[in-house]
Design brief:
This protein is α/β, with parallel strands linked by helices. It is built from 22 helices and 21 strands. Helices cover 43% and strands 16% of the residues. Helix 6 crosses helix 7, helix 11 runs parallel beside helix 12 and helix 17 crosses helix 20.
């Protein structure tokens, strides 16, 4: 049980928030003056009526609204508070001096004068040091809050100065101004409506006030730019196991700052998405309540606690669209593939920013519409890809060099420890690779990773009418191939399809081999794309090997690492000896970690001039699948069967898997320096 002092400290932190440790610890040494000053400011705010109004407001309205961002106290409420206090001080200042009114005047004048000082200092200076990042609605908040707080401060001092006497509040306010700014302001005798005799000194005093304001403004401008912590609310369409087990845990995971995005023109702050700001929609008959989703909310100290996210069940997809369009919040489309294009079109029509799982479209008319109208539909849409933007991100970066992707990667060098990814001259690396001679992509998964495992509800992924294994899994291998080749126009493979006896349905497409032989005439590489479900464990492997003229590139999708092995001693000197590129550990620890980071950045900041999703590749791959759909379905109808022990599979498959395992990189080989 927490100690009473710990409980009290925790309660104070909820009301007024203790200063961040980094605000008074500079270069691993503590500043005692900053520690005392910043904690004193917290205590001043603790005794502020305005701070308690904020606390009560957040407690009352923090949990009851769909798509609610972190509940903030709107600046309008702050302005109303200071105006109300100013009016109260005007009324109190006019009370005649009596044994009861004088103590009341002293108490209220002192309290609100001190509160005015506290908030003036907080808004002008201390907030930028005490809180590392915070939410504001507009920078003009300070333009309004400071003069209002200053007015309360002046009126409070005016009440204090004139509390024992019967002079008017206006005269006492002038006296307070003179006291505050140490001016020679003359207070006229009698009525304040008379023009002051000392107008010259009054003018100089007002000019001095202007100088003080200019000085404060310049001091304020000299401080580092205000870091505003972005917050966003998110809708999710779909409540399957991908949403429950992958997407939502990654979405609420706390992310590090993306500090290397200088080439995009700004320094990104992590976008905070609290579970209370996520609302999940599902489509059903509405007969019974939906089961809420439970995710672990993680904290920087490593602690975690479960948090339940409600699921709202609608009767139709159109009802879901109506809800999202009315809320106007960004949405992630993670429903079954046959509904993806419908939601994409609806979100684009209603001007809602969205992210959509692959494949973007399944049916032929949808693919054709996507090719014709895709740029318009995806002007504010993010195309997700579990392999291109997650498992094979090091390979994607090798061919795209996108700076935002680089922020999710690390470079490990066995003889140099940990280094930044951009320390390698990547243009020279790519130039030294030469032409690809052989490309082999393996996506072979056993029973534990197949849709039937553990009673999974993803058996629709094997529906041959929706493309079966082609649109669900083979699309990943074709996407990787597109990254390597840049286009798929000349990829016209031979097809072999088989079904496993371990499959749930006998018409499920469990194994596909796409083979394109090398063509010496045009220098085309030999290509083998091998995709399988329900495979024997001895044949399970997920990765790609690209054999270039100058080096061999091997990417392991499970460990999310990539290694380039030079064939010649002169290739890039010793920079690549023992080097590997890997997804940063923080993102690799949770599935969808990178994609969640990219989606959150996109929802808050948009494209920033350059797309960083997988839209262009997905359109190219879907176009290729559309052109070859009849051949793919014909091969699926004529497929044979193989036993669970691998009988019936290509003889060379075991050799390919063995060769891949010898070359693949492993995250455990590298240690961060």
């Amino acid at each position: 049980m927490p100690h009473p002092l710990q409980r009290m400290r925790s309660f104070i932190n909820k009301v007024a928030k203790w200063p961040a440790t980094s605000s008074y610890r500079w270069d691993e040494r503590m500043s005692l003056a900053a520690f005392l000053l910043f904690h004193a400011m917290t205590l001043l705010r603790l005794f502020s009526l305005l701070q308690w109004l904020k606390f009560v407001h957040r407690r009352m309205y923090g949990k009851d609204r769909y798509f609610q961002k972190r509940t903030n106290f709107h600046p309008l409420f702050t302005e109303c508070y200071f105006v109300a206090v100013a009016l109260l001080l005007v009324v109190v200042g006019q009370l005649p001096a009596t044994p009861l009114s004088v103590p009341l005047k002293v108490a209220l004048g002192a309290y609100f004068a001190a509160e005015g000082i506290a908030w003036s200092a907080y808004y002008l200076f201390f907030r930028h040091f005490i809180e590392r990042s915070f939410t504001i609605y507009h920078q003009a908040e300070y333009f309004l809050a400071f003069p209002l707080a200053l007015a309360v401060q002046v009126l409070g001092f005016g009440v204090l100065v004139g509390a024992p006497c019967d002079s008017g509040l206006a005269e006492r306010a002038f006296q307070a101004l003179g006291f505050l700014f140490n001016s020679t302001l003359e207070v006229p005798a009698g009525s304040c409506t008379q023009f002051p005799k000392g107008w010259i000194s009054n003018g100089l005093a007002l000019l001095g006030i202007c100088y003080v304001v200019v000085l404060l403004a310049n001091l304020r401008d000299a401080f580092p730019k205000t870091h505003v912590k972005p917050t966003t609310a998110v809708g999710v369409i779909g409540a399957g196991d991908v949403v429950r087990q992958r997407l939502l845990p990654a979405l609420v995971r706390q992310l590090p700052r993306l500090s290397g995005a200088a080439s995009l023109g700004r320094r990104f702050e992590p976008v905070e998405i609290h579970p209370s700001a996520i609302h999940v929609f599902d489509v059903g008959d509405g007969a019974g309540p939906s089961r809420p989703i439970e995710v672990l909310l993680e904290f920087p100290n490593g602690a975690a606690r479960p948090r339940r996210i409600p699921v709202k069940r609608e009767r139709s997809s159109q009802d879901v669209v109506v809800e999202i369009a009315a809320a106007q919040v960004p949405v992630i489309i993670a429903s079954p593939p046959d509904s993806h294009f419908f939601y994409v079109a609806m979100m684009a029509m209603h001007g809602v920013r969205f992210a959509v799982e692959k494949p973007i479209a399944v049916f032929e008319p949808e693919v054709q519409a996507l090719i014709a109208e895709g740029d318009r539909l995806f002007a504010d849409g993010f195309a997700m890809s579990y392999y291109a933007l997650e498992k094979a991100l090091p390979l994607t970066y090798l061919y795209t060099m996108h700076p935002l992707h680089r922020n999710h990667l690390d470079l490990y060098v066995s003889r140099g420890g940990y280094r930044a990814v951009d320390t390698l001259p990547w243009n020279e690396v790519i130039g030294g690779l030469g032409r690809p001679q052989r490309i082999r992509v393996l996506l072979l998964e056993g029973l534990s990773r197949s849709p039937s495992a553990g009673g999974s509800n993803r058996q629709w992924t094997e529906d041959p009418h929706l493309g079966g294994l082609y649109y669900e899994t083979a699309i990943h291998a074709i996407t990787v191939l597109h990254k390597v080749l840049g286009d798929l126009d000349r990829f016209d493979p031979e097809l072999l399809a088989m079904v496993s006896q371990s499959a749930v349905r006998q018409d499920s497409c469990s194994f596909v081999h796409m083979h394109a032989p090398a063509a010496a005439a045009d220098g085309a590489a030999a290509i083998d794309l091998v995709v399988g479900k329900y495979m024997p464990e001895a044949l399970c492997a997920r990765g790609a090997v690209i054999d270039y003229a100058g080096a061999v590139v091997c990417c392991d999708f499970d460990s999310m690492t990539l290694r380039i092995r030079p064939k010649g001693a002169t290739f890039m000197g010793s920079d690549l000896v023992g080097a590997a590129v890997a997804v940063r550990e923080h993102y690799a620890q949770v599935r969808y970690g990178v994609q969640a980071s990219l989606i959150r950045t996109f929802f808050e900041y948009g494209w920033q001039g350059a797309r960083f999703d997988d839209y262009a590749t997905q359109v190219a791959v879907l176009s290729w699948l559309s052109r070859h759909r009849s051949r793919l379905l014909e091969a699926q109808q004529q497929m044979g069967r193989y036993a669970p022990d691998g009988q019936g599979l290509p003889v060379a498959l075991a050799d390919w898997v063995a060769a891949y395992r010898q070359q693949r990189p492993d995250r455990s080989e590298f240690q961060q320096g």
